[in-house]
């Protein structure tokens, strides 16, 4: 797990755009994450447990906190040094290979 004190709470959404996969545990049980742009200032996150179960949620950036709602608020942090995305309820994610 990443050290939460070393992670950036303030980051550009452009820095985290792309596909991400879980760093640990059983990857078949952890959702894949895809962050993409929908407009000039709008980004969304796709959470997919399998091809038939996909949640598509808007990303919010308020008071220096980036988050989305999926049965509660899930916060995002980004470790730019290691290129790791941290989701508060799901752990560390690394950028997927193309």
From TrEMBL:
Organism: Bacteroides reticulotermitis JCM 10512
Highest taxon of source: Bacteria
The name this protein goes by in its record: DUF3876 domain-containing protein
């Amino acid at each position: 797990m990443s050290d939460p004190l070393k992670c950036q709470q303030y980051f550009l959404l452009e820095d985290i755009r792309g596909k991400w996969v879980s760093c640990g545990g059983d990857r078949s049980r952890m959702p894949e994450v895809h962050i993409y742009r929908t407009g000039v200032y709008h980004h969304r996150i796709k959470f997919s447990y399998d091809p038939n179960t996909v949640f598509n949620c808007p990303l919010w950036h308020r008071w220096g906190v980036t988050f989305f709602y999926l049965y509660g608020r899930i916060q995002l942090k980004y470790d730019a040094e290691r290129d790791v995305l941290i989701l508060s309820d799901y752990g560390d994610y690394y950028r997927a290979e193309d």
